[in-house]
Structure formats: C-alpha cells, structure tokens
C-alpha cells in the first residue's frame, strides 16, 4: 500500500482505519533518514513521534476522533519550544542550553488535533538571514537542485516539505522567512496578520514583526493547518474579490520567466490593473533598521559576555544593530505609519494584491547573489526585496507557487489585516483552476 503524503489524505486514511498513524510516522522517519544531504533536519524526534502516533492509533481503536490532523507527520523550525529539548534558534551556542519545560502553544494545538511531531528543522542563526546558511548545521539544500539555496530563514522547514520528508512544517516570518523559502522550494506558505497566531514558546527576533506560519503541499492543506492553529474553521469561499498587481518597485529586476508567468496569471484572472505604491524603498530601509535595532537590543547582553560564540555573519550585524541610537527605532515606526496609510488607501479599492516573492529562482550556493538594478548583491541580505516592505506593515500574505516548468517561482497574495482566511480561499480557487501548482520531490 502506498501511504499518502498530503495532510488531508493522511488524516482521512487514519481516521477511517485504512492505515495507522504509526505506519505513517515510521515512513516519515525513514524518509528523513534517507535524505540527510538536504540538511533540512537538526534533530529526529523518533521516540516522541512514535509515542504520539500510538496515542492516535489508540483513539481510533476506541472509536474516538483523534482530530482533523490525525497521524499527519510534521516538523518545526528550531526556534519553537519542544518540551525536553533546548530551543537552539539555529545557534550552536544554545545547543546544550536548558531544555524547554513545555511545548510552544502552536505545537500543543497541533498535537491536540492529532498531528505527529517528527523533527526540528534547520534555519539561519537566530532567524537573521534569507538562505539558511547555518554555521553549526550546514546549508540547507533546495530539493529541486541541491546546488541552490532553499531560502531562509525557515529553509529547513521548506526543504522538508518540498523534499517529501514531512507533510507540513512550521516556520517563522519576520521579513520574508516563510515566503522566500516557500517560493524558492515551490510550496504554499502563510505569513499571517501580525500577532494573529500564537507566538508563545518561540524564540524571538524582532517582536514588532515576528509571526509564525505553516508550509504545506496544497492550499487545502494550508487551510486546514491554519484553522487548527487559530482554533477557527477555514473559509470555503473567497467570495467576489477585487484583485490588482503591484508594480513599480515590485516589477523591477524580474527574470523573464517570472515576468511572463505573472502576465499569464493576470490575463487568466483579469485582466488586472497595476498599482504602484509610493514609499516602498523607504519602507524597506525602515524594516532593515527595525530588525537591526530590535535584534541587536535582544542579543546585546549575550554579545557583551560571549560574542565569539555567535556565527560571525550573524554577530556582526547584531552588534551593528545594538549600536544604533534610540531615535532611529522611533523614526522607523513613524515611517510605518505613513506607509500603512498608503496601503489603507489601496485596500479601499482592492481586496487582494499580487506581487512576486523574489526576483527569480533560488540562487546558486556557489554564487550567492541576486541581481538588483544591474548589480550583484548578497542573497543572504537581499532576497527580501519584495517581502520586507509587506511584513513591515503586518499584513497577511500567502506565498503561492506558480504553475511553471523548471525551477520554482512564486508569488505573494497580499490582503488587508484580518483577511487571512479569505486569502487562503482565494489561493485554493487559483489552485483549482490550475494557475498554482506545488513543486515536490517525493
């Protein structure tokens, strides 16, 4: 019997007794062990996974409903608290820290829904980067081409789903850390309305921007996982929507294949009008400042006492951020108010905005750059060209894979605050029409 990988299919099979959660868990653990070269996983949680699966099977045997995610194997970015394990946040300096006393609330909710936790997943140290180049656990490889980055900072979470290791994963997104790896690996992902999903039990980076969210194999799986995390039913119908493309800043430097794919999508949906918001460059700069200042302040005590235990690529940026004066933080927040007004005006006319996630496919590890305005710039800091201005405002965004040949290319579906469920429903509609397609390496 071929075991399913989609979350909805697994849960249905387990609840109906067609396969056991233990079978599913063992298969997931075997897939993880079969692909160590992806460097997606930092710890395999075999004992926990088999224990959770056994509980699900016992519920089924008693005629009880184990929950909407019954037996579905998943993993979490290594900044979620997992009871009994150190929360490393991708840092070697925390590898042997005091273990977490409790699971993060998100993990508690998934366990209550029957999901089975199998692994913790690689990330950029302290979530400060866009490529998952980790000094302790290595560079996570893109399942579609191991010579390319998976994106970051939640690269292990994306690679684990795209590579067929797990059915879904959790990551975090501050400036694009879910959307970028989702797009480079050909997945669906969500950066929710700021503070709308439970952050308790996660290692912080920039508290005014940090959010958690899921990576999934389909928009329908994403809808189910997001509803479990929220404790609310998923929306089934997006309803009539006014849709537009973001141009200007968001149309620059695109590779020809991505530009053509966006044109095709716009024609299939619309034709769609194009909106060119003002102040995007200033907003992105302010997001950089906000991240540096808050991240630097958070780590200042540890840097003062033990700076050499940090990855130099992370340490130097955190030190620079800690040195920024107080007034630049206030200025960045003031800039956010101005930029928010710009988007409030746009959302008075449109419900969904579509923009590229990155300028093209995943960069090569041997040549870690992206081309911006004709110049090659470091990918680790610049893959967020199109994502940072959006998360700066705390808006909900669905990262969605375009139905294109070759390496994955992705888009952002952006809505006003609180429109998360409607955005997911819109993604489901586009997927059903064949305009979006997840790219997987089962």
UniProtKB/TrEMBL annotation:
Record's keyword terms, sorted: Transferase
InterPro entries named among the record's database cross-references: Amidase (IPR000120), Amidase_dom (IPR023631), AS_sf (IPR036928), Carboxybiuret_hydro_AtzE (IPR014087)
Keyword Transferase: yes
Domain called Amidase: residue spans: 23-232, 327-423
GO MF terms, alphabetically ordered: transferase activity
Keyword Transferase appears in the UniProt entry: yes
Sections of the chain in a coiled coil: none
Cross-referenced NCBIfam families: amido_AtzE (TIGR02715), PRK09201.1 (NF006631)
Listed name of the protein: Putative glutamyl-tRNA(Gln) amidotransferase subunit A
Native source species: Novosphingobium nitrogenifigens DSM 19370
């Amino acid at each position: 019997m071929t075991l399913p990988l989609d979350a909805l299919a697994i849960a249905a099979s387990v609840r109906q007794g067609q396969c056991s959660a233990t079978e599913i868990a063992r298969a997931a653990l075997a897939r993880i062990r079969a692909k160590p070269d992806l460097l997606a996983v930092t710890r395999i949680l075999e004992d926990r996974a088999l224990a959770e699966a056994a509980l699900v099977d016992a519920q089924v045997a008693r005629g009880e409903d184990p929950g909407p995610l019954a037996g579905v194997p998943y993993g979490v970015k290594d900044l979620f608290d997992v009871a009994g394990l150190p929360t490393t946040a991708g840092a070697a300096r925390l590898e042997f820290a005091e273990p977490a006393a409790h699971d993060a609330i998100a993990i508690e909710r998934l366990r209550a829904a029957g999901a089975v936790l199998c692994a913790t997943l690689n990330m950029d140290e302290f979530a400060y980067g866009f490529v998952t180049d980790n000094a302790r656990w290595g560079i996570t490889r893109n399942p579609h081409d191991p010579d390319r980055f998976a994106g970051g900072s939640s690269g292990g979470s994306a690679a684990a789903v795209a590579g067929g290791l797990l059915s879904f994963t959790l990551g975090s997104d501050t400036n694009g850390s879910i959307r970028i790896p989702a797009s480079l690996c050909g997945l669906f992902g969500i950066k929710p309305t700021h503070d709308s999903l439970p952050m308790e039990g996660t290692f912080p980076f920039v508290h005014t921007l940090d959010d958690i969210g899921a990576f999934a194999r389909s928009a329908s799986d994403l809808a189910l996982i997001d509803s479990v995390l929220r404790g609310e039913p998923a929306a089934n119908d997006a309803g009539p929507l006014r849709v537009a493309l973001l141009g200007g800043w968001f149309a620059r430097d695109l590779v020809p294949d991505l530009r053509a794919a966006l044109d095709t999508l716009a024609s299939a949906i619309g034709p769609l009008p194009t909106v060119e918001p003002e102040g995007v460059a200033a907003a992105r700069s302010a997001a950089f400042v906000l991240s540096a200042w808050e991240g630097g302040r958070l780590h200042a005590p540890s840097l003062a006492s033990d700076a050499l235990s940090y990855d130099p690529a992370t340490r130097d940026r955190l030190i620079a951020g800690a040195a920024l004066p107080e007034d630049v933080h206030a200025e960045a927040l003031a800039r956010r108010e101005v930029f928010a007004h710009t988007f409030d005006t746009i959302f008075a006319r449109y419900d969904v905005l579509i923009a590229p996630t990155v300028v093209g496919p995943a960069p090569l590890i041997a040549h870690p750059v992206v081309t911006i305005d004709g110049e090659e710039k470091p990918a680790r800091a610049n893959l967020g060209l199109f994502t940072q201005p959006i998360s700066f405002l705390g808006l909900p965004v669905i990262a969605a894979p375009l139905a294109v040949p070759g390496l994955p290319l992705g888009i952002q579906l952006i809505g006003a605050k609180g429109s998360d469920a409607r955005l997911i429903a819109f993604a489901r509609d586009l997927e059903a029409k064949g305009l979006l397609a997840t790219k997987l390496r089962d």
